[in-house]
Amino acid sequence: MMEPTSGHHSKFPPPAVSVRELEKVYGRGSASVRALGGVSIDFDAGTFTAVMGQSGSGKSTLLQCAAGLEAPTAGTVTLAGTELAGLSESALTVLRRSRVGFVFQAYNLVSALTVRENILLPTRLGRVRADRQRLAQIAERVGLTNRLRHRPAQLSGGEQQRVAIARALFTNPDVVFCDEPTGALDSTSAARVLDLLRESVDIDAGTVVMVTHDPTAASYADRVVTLADGHIADDLSAPDVGTIADRLARLGARGADGSERCTGPSPA
User: Fold this and answer.
1) Contact yes or no for 115/167 (Cβ under 8 A)
2) Per-residue pLDDT for the chain (268 aa), expressed as one digit of tens each?
């Protein structure tokens, strides 16, 4: 059985997310595509991990399965001490809402709601009383104290993404999953967003798992895991931008000889 890779080898605290022999196949028969081929990995609590790879490498599929947004074909995911496979859809929804934060490239804000209402949405859906002090604290950290009454359409892209981060952090989740959070942003806005994610680890002892194609974004992480053809190809501790770009270029060159797996439905 493949040994899981982990950012560090201490047994305590347990990993925020633990993945074992994870497989994901899209489609059936001759049209099937294996997006993940038996991945085992731990994402340790209090760390920032970047997940990288060529298009079709399985990086977004790994994130979706680890976050409980997609069910794997085989293998297990344990998130915040709970094995996801044993949960009903309603229990999984509650777990995601209370223990997990999400930040996507497309922001996923509700246009009819104000910034304040968007940030508080997880607690509203969970019928939990909102902590006003926590709201003020988070709004100040992301630089949106004067924007709480605005709607998303009145904000820049960078501001909208900061609302999404505030929403993700508000419930103090065990882990925040980010899929290309800076993909639609200019470099200045991207740096602000990455600083906020870094702070959530350094200040709040949170856990961040981020899919990105950008070596500069990945350099904010403690650890960079690279996937190729649905398997872990590289696992680097605190690499700099140059090292990350070099490893990605090597993986790309290796795939250029025809060995790069063709992509299927959304296994990116």
Assistant:
1) no
2) 444 555 554 456 789 999 999 999 999 888 899 999 999 999 999 999 999 998 889 999 999 999 999 999 999 999 988 999 989 999 998 898 889 999 998 889 999 999 999 999 988 776 777 788 889 999 999 999 999 999 999 999 999 999 999 999 998 899 999 999 999 899 999 999 999 999 999 998 999 999 999 999 999 999 999 999 999 999 999 889 999 999 888 877 665 444 443 333 444 4
CB neighbour list of residue 39: distance below 8 Å, 6 or more residues apart: 19, 21, 22, 23, 58, 62, 75, 227, 230, 231, 232
Domains in the chain with CATH codes:
17-255 (3.40.50.300)
Look at strands 208-211 and 48-53 and give their pairing.
parallel
Half-sphere exposure of 30 (CA within 13 A, CB side): 0
